[in-house]
Write a structure and sequence with these properties.
Blueprint: H1 10-37, H2 40-47, H3 51-55, H4 61-84, H5 90-105, H6 111-117, H7 120-128, H8 130-154, H9 163-173, H10 176-185, H11 190-204
Helix pairs in contact: 1-2, 1-4, 1-6, 4-5, 4-8, 5-8, 5-11, 8-9
């Protein structure tokens, strides 16, 4: 017997739609006012509901922003899945991930990420909720691990370098701070930033050549 997922009730669909509207409004308010200037009243006003109604979905402003970050990361994870299904080589997939990440940072909808990362108040909340942030980021970490392990198996990437280190290095490249400094402040064209970052990372994780090895490990002639 084939089991089918239960169809959401009208009440559940209405709840999901309201949450979607609240999250969209929260992103707009964050982009305009920053985390410290954002209030639940402002978000409620944009949605056209009472502040009390928001608290039925999100207990606090902090919970609302974490939910917004989680949704953004989940959408990014789904985009990475599309890249994985494209038939590209591991090297091409890594470049596509970097290109997609920085292309997303150029979109107006990404402005709320900058807003929260520029708030010392929210950064302290992130520190307090490290476990929550790990859970939110885990889907991306797992996908990066998968593509880098694939590259190790194909011989594209250094099999001796720990995958966890590769993931950490790649994650460090996918940051709004680099985008803000190089693209917004210094005016470097986005394709150039993507090209240089891709070259830098892919060279760094390429299989070692004999001349790259320490003296004690170089083969004797």
């Amino acid at each position: 017997m084939t089991l089918h997922a239960a169809t959401p009730t009208l009440k559940e669909r209405q709840r999901q739609e309201r949450e979607r509207l609240i999250l969209r409004a929260a992103g707009e308010v964050l982009a305009d006012q920053g985390y410290d200037g954002m209030s639940m009243e402002d978000v409620a006003s944009r949605v056209g509901i009472s502040r009390a109604a928001i608290y039925l979905h999100f207990p606090s402003k902090e919970d609302l922003v974490f939910a917004l970050l989680g949704r953004g990361i989940q959408m990014f994870a789904e985009s990475v899945d599309d890249i994985f299904a494209s038939g590209l080589t591991p090297r091409e997939k890594v470049r596509a991930i970097i290109e997609h990440s920085y292309g997303g940072m150029a979109q107006p909808s990404f402005r709320f990420f900058n807003a929260v990362l520029q708030s010392p108040t929210f950064l302290s909340k992130m520190t307090e909720r490290q476990r929550t942030m790990r859970d939110v980021w885990n889907p991306i970490q797992q996908r990066l691990t998968d593509v880098l392990d694939e590259g190790k198996r194909s011989g594209d990437f250094d099999t001796e370098m720990p995958t966890s280190l590769m993931v950490s290095l790649l994650s460090g490249l996918l940051t709004p701070f680099t985008f803000k400094q190089m693209v917004e402040q210094e005016g470097m064209p986005l394709p150039e930033v993507v090209n240089f970052l891709s070259r830098y990372f892919l060279k760094g994780i390429a299989p070692s050549q004999p001349d790259d090895l320490p003296e004690t490990r170089r083969p004797a002639h």
